[in-house]
């Protein structure tokens, strides 16, 4: 009864909105699915298989209500690279493994971690992929028949070699498509009955009609086989599996980044909240299922998801409806693809690629930070000029180096001489001759980890020159300590003891104290009072004055 009520409520409240949104989104997704498949170096129907199956599965199992999943521009480059390196069997196996990785990411609740990849790295990847797609579509825009190449310089060389075969008709169709996509939205917005119609479908209809009626001889998509895809068994060869593993991990990471970024954009447009870990699992399920139906790796698409929201989607059913409409097109309108000019698809993808190259982000990054700019440019160039797997690996490495440098810059160690002598701890120290002569106080600001050791060493060397018998390390502002920090702290305590100096650690945070107590040697040093732990610096000063000083001090 509850199910019937829910269905009835859905039909009354949301079905009409979801149907409209799903239909329009499917119309937008149709040329993109075919275009991204061709750009990826696979048959056009594989793009439609991907859009149908992924659209259904992720909408049903994912954690974002409005995200639309299918083949995307970001994926085309890594798919093409994997296809060239390992063939179709290797690509399908890599897609399956990528899905397994994404499910693992979701189970381990790494959804939020993916969001912490620095913007310069993401911008570099995205812009680099956009540049590769742009260059890869030049042959189609010029009417040249050039197989998809793995590297941009190979594509450019092939274009130059075939320059005498350029078709002016293809150039006109490509240029006209771009103009229609740019200017039709503004014109159509003024006409009530067609303002919801996607400009891309109008451009598609016009280009198909031109080819059909005028018999224009330019490269075409070719007829798409009508019917459902056959089940395709994967080649689980251990040697092939190990070989494609790096590519699979790259696909998983790129898919996770784009999918979660899309979910965040959808949240911003609708004031909703997505479940990032569930979204990763949903994306993973789709990517594991797709290879069995000749589908290529997928992820959520920001542009299609935005259309879905803009057209009034209310539930995840709009994504399922979009997939069902694409399935109907696949079953009954496949032969129409025989008249779709590749120049039209080139126009669509050139606009997509130009939007991926975010000039504003480049300018903003350059104005804010030279270090971020260097990371962005290096990532961009590596993406364009080298293997994408290597570019992703180097991008992640650069992001770690960036984090390390910034954490290191946060670290600082101050002596109390830097502060006002009439206030706080200094008031206590400089009011007493014994404390002023025999105590050095250092305030450690920031995480006490391997990156902080250089700063620590310089301050310690400075102290060894001063040679005061009592050393207080204030640790109130140390949020964590790593193994290297503990080892260096032990070495410092031992070296100080040999110099007949005593070390006091004050205001140690509970988490830091827990890490320190887990080290047996450091615990032993504490028990033998080779290092003293005090709740506050004032407590340490009171202890020192009481035990070693000659005059009274108020506690």
UniProtKB/TrEMBL annotation:
It comes from the Archaea. Residues 438-544 form the STAS domain. Its main location: membrane. The chain crosses the membrane at residues 20-39, 86-105, 117-136, 156-189, 201-224, 244-266, 319-337, 374-405. One of its GO terms (biological process) is transmembrane transport. It holds the Pfam family Sulfate_transp. GO terms for cellular component: membrane. Keywords: Membrane, Transmembrane, Transmembrane helix. It is a multi-pass membrane protein. InterPro entries: SLC26A/SulP_dom, SLC26A/SulP_fam, STAS_dom, STAS_dom_sf. It is found in: Membrane. CDD domains: STAS_SulP_like_sulfate_transporter. This is Sulfate permease, SulP family. The lineage of its organism: Archaea, Methanobacteriati, Methanobacteriota, Stenosarchaea group, Methanomicrobia.
């Amino acid at each position: 009864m509850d199910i019937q009520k829910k269905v009835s409520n859905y039909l009354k409240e949301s079905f009409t909105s979801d149907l409209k949104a799903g239909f329009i989104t499917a119309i937008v997704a149709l040329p993109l699915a075919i275009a991204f498949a061709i750009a990826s170096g696979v048959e056009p129907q594989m793009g439609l298989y991907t859009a149908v199956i992924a659209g259904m599965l992720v909408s049903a199992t994912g954690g974002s209500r409005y995200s639309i999943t299918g083949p995307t521009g970001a994926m085309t480059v890594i798919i093409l690279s994997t296809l060239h390196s390992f063939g179709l069997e290797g690509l399908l196996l890599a897609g399956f493994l990528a899905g397994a990785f994404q499910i693992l990411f979701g189970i381990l609740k790494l959804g939020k971690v993916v969001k912490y990849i620095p913007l310069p790295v993401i911008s570099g990847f995205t812009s680099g992929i956009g540049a590769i797609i742009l260059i890869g579509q030049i042959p189609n825009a010029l009417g040249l028949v050039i197989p998809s190449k793995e590297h941009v310089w190979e594509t450019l060389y092939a274009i130059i070699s075939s320059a005498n075969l350029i078709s002016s008709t293809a150039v006109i169709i490509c240029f006209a498509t771009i103009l229609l996509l740019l200017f039709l939205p503004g014109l159509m917005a003024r006409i009530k009955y067609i303002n919801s119609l996607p400009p891309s479908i109008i451009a598609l209809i016009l280009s198909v009609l031109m080819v059909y009626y005028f018999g224009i001889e330019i490269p075409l998509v070719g007829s798409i086989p009508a019917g459902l895809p056959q089940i395709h068994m994967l080649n689980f060869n251990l040697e092939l599996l190990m070989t494609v593993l790096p590519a699979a991990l790259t696909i998983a990471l790129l898919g996770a980044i784009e999918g979660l970024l899309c979910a965040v954009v959808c949240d911003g447009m609708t004031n909703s909240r997505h479940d990032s870990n569930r979204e990763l699992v949903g994306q993973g399920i789709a990517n594991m299922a797709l290879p069995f139906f000749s589908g290529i790796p997928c992820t959520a698409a920001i542009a299609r998801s935005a259309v879905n929201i803009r057209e009034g989607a209310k539930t995840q059913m709009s994504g399922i409806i979009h997939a069902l409409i694409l399935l109907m097109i696949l079953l009954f309108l496949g032969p129409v693809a025989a008249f779709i000019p590749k120049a039209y698809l080139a126009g669509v993808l050139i606009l997509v690629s130009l939007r991926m190259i975010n000039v504003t982000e480049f300018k903003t990054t350059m104005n804010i930070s030279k270090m971020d700019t260097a990371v962005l440019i290096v990532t961009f160039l590596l993406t364009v000029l080298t293997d994408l797997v290597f570019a992703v690996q180097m991008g992640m490495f650069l992001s770690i180096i960036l984090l390390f440098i910034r954490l290191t810059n946060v670290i600082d160690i101050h002596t109390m001489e830097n502060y006002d002598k009439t206030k706080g701890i200094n008031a206590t120290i400089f009011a007493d001759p014994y404390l002023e002569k025999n105590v050095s106080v250092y305030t450690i600001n920031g995480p006490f980890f391997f990156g902080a050791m250089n700063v620590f060493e310089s301050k310690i060397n400075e102290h060894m020159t001063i040679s005061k018998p009592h050393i207080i390390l204030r640790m109130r502002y140390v949020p964590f300590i790593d193994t290297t920090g503990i080892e260096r702290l032990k070495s410092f305590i031992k070296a100080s003891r040999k110099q007949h100096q005593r070390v006091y650690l004050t205001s140690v945070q509970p988490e830091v104290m827990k890490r320190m107590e887990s080290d047996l040697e450091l615990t032993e040093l504490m028990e033998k009072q080779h290092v003293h732990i005090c709740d506050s610096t004032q407590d340490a000063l009171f202890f020192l004055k009481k035990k070693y000083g000659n005059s009274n001090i108020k506690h």
